[in-house]
């Protein structure tokens, strides 16, 4: 189901899209992340993880999220563990307090350290230095 139809069907202030940046995959989320919208985010992260090639990360960009509920935290934690098992890093981009605070309160920030920018999230350390995956 495409994002526009999902928004129209449920009339939710929510949007999610997936973009490929070289071997990395970026899942951009906007609006409210809660129990009603997390299934669509889950789907896009699952596809992103299937498409990603290590050491390139799967990045979940939450910079346009207005509300972030526990359902979103739980889903990110599940996918962090799944990504780790496959050798792919799951990174999160978040810069607003209403997203960062739930990360801190739950302790998830100890497992997934939120990045301030997409460019930062796409950096990957390698034996020959740091590699940046392309950002459009």
TrEMBL record:
Residues 25-125 form the STAS domain. InterPro entries: Anti-sigma_ant, STAS_dom, STAS_dom_sf. It comes from the Bacteria. Belongs to the anti-sigma-factor antagonist family. This is Anti-sigma factor antagonist.
């Amino acid at each position: 189901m495409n994002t526009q139809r999902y928004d129209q069907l449920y009339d939710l202030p929510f949007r999610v899209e997936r973009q490929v940046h070289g071997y990395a995959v970026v899942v951009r989320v906007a609006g409210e992340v809660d129990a009603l919208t997390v299934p669509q985010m889950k789907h896009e992260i699952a596809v992103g993880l299937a498409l990603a090639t290590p050491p390139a990360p799967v990045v979940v960009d939450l910079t346009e999220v207005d509300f972030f509920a526990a359902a979103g935290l739980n889903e990110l934690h599940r996918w962090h563990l799944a990504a780790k098992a496959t050798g792919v890093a799951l990174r999160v981009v978040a810069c607003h307090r209403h997203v960062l605070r739930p990360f801190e309160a739950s302790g998830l920030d100890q497992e997934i350290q939120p990045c301030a920018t997409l460019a930062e999230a796409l950096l990957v350390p390698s034996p020959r230095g740091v590699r940046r995956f392309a950002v459009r």
